[in-house]
Amino acid sequence: MYSGRQDDTLYIMTYTLNSGIKGTVPLSNKQIIEWLDCYRNEKRFVTEIGKEFFGLNAALVADFKVQNHLSDYQQTIMPTQQQDNLERLSSAYKSTELLMKIDCKCGTAYVTESPYKRTKWYCTKCKEIVFLDAKKGMVETSRGDAYYMTNKYFVSRD
Q1: Could you tell me how far CA 14 lies from the centroid of its own chain?
Q2: Which residue among 38, 43, 96, 101 is least crowded, i.e. fewest CB within 10 A of its CB?
Q3: Tens of pLDDT along the chain (158 residues)?
Q4: How far is the C-alpha of 68 from the C-alpha of 46, rounded, in Å?
Q5: Is the CB of residue 104 less than 8 Å from the CB of residue 125?
């Protein structure tokens, strides 16, 4: 569905039944062509969407609209920001993240990111609690300075 290939793209078809009930369904290009054929010949349209089957009697459809890559609606929902703006915004969010060096008694040692400073964390391997060693302060890692967290020895939690 999120692939860049044209075949995998799903477009939203909005339809209105003769009774006034509106509905929407995601369709691929192949399914849209199939639907148009059924609508012109007033046949029943049955297709598979994911693991579900969808059926629609074309004789009961008053009108329909497909928003594909050519429609104006699709242009309005396209992102308008430039790539460099997105990269600047992404780097601004990443600049607030802190690095944590985890050193667990199970032997696991790694560096991870946290959106804010924490006093305790959990080891990803053994799920034991590790505590921030404020006395040791920041330690140098390959990714930069990081707060040191461990459970190898007693850590004062003042």
Answers
A1: 24
A2: 96
A3: 333 344 567 888 899 999 989 998 988 888 888 999 999 998 999 998 878 888 999 899 988 888 766 555 554 445 555 666 777 777 776 667 789 999 999 999 999 988 888 888 889 899 899 999 988 888 999 888 999 999 999 988 76
A4: 20
A5: yes
Q: Are 117 and 133 in contact (CB under 8 A)?
A: no
The secondary structure of 71-100 as a DSSP string is SHHHHHTS--S-HHHHHHHHHHHHHT-EEE
| Separation CA 106–CA 42 (nearest Å) | 68
Residue type, 66: V
- Count how many Cα atoms sit within 13 Å of the Cα of residue 38 in the half-sphere of its side chain: 19
CA distance 129 to 103: 11
**DSSP assignment letter at 59:** G
* Distance in angstroms between the alpha carbons of the first and the last residue of the chain: 51
Query: β-strands 129-132, 120-122: how paired?
Result: antiparallel
Q: Regarding beta strands 11-17 and 22-27, do their DSSP bridges make them parallel or antiparallel, or are they unpaired?
A: antiparallel
